[in-house]
Design goal:
197 residues, mainly alpha, two-stranded parallel sheet, two-stranded parallel ribbon, 8 helices
């Protein structure tokens, strides 16, 4: 489908979606079960199913409904088998990588419990880089400025200098364990779009 439909804010998006599915698929004898509908969350699917049932007036096989995160996981599962890493495991992996590669950066945070809040911030930053598919080349500008020193605590400047290398090692470890996080799922799917139907 190569068309874009623009709606006013006052328009009922579910009504338009139901009409589109019925006109472009159901009435042309294309099974709705071959259609994927992606919403920001899960709730709209319940209302759209009900609306489709009312408009069709008989039993039917509904489209496949996904939240955005579910859809990205579905796309990745077509090419790779993986599990999802828990938040705590992810934080501990960052901690282990810091211990191994940059132990001086743990000064004052040698215990995992003291490092945990910082690990969450690092993971959040890496996830944003992955969601936006920021290439390593773009990070070099941040790293160069961090070497000069942003007006932030020195520990943050030190982290910014190393964020590209940490991100690479972190990704390698996740892929090796076949245990992906949300950011890496989005990154892998966006980089392999041609492999997805």
């Amino acid at each position: 489908m190569e068309k874009v439909i623009t709606l006013n804010l006052k328009d009922n998006i579910l009504e338009h979606c139901a009409d589109l599915l019925i006109e472009d698929y159901y009435k042309k004898n294309i099974p709705l079960s071959r259609v994927a509908v992606v919403f920001g969350g899960k709730r709209p699917a319940l209302f759209l199913k009900k609306l489709l049932a009312e408009k069709i007036g008989r039993s039917y096989f509904p489209p496949a409904f996904f939240s955005i995160d579910e859809f990205m996981e579905h796309c990745l599962l077509k090419n790779t088998s993986f599990g999802k890493i828990s938040d705590l495991e992810e934080a501990f992996l960052i901690y282990e990588l810091m211990q191994k590669h940059w132990p001086k950066m743990l000064k004052g945070r040698e215990q995992f419990i003291r490092f945990l809040p910082w690990a969450k911030e690092i993971i959040s930053f890496i996830e944003q880089l992955d969601l936006e598919d920021i290439p390593q080349e773009a990070l070099k500008n941040i790293q160069a400025k961090a070497r000069l020193g942003y007006d932030v605590p020195q520990s943050i400047n030190e982290m910014l200098i190393r964020i590209g290398a940490l991100r690479d090692i972190f990704h390698r470890q996740l892929k090796q364990a076949r245990s992906y996080n949300r950011g890496l799922i989005y990154l892998e799917v966006s980089r392999n779009l041609e492999n997805n139907d």
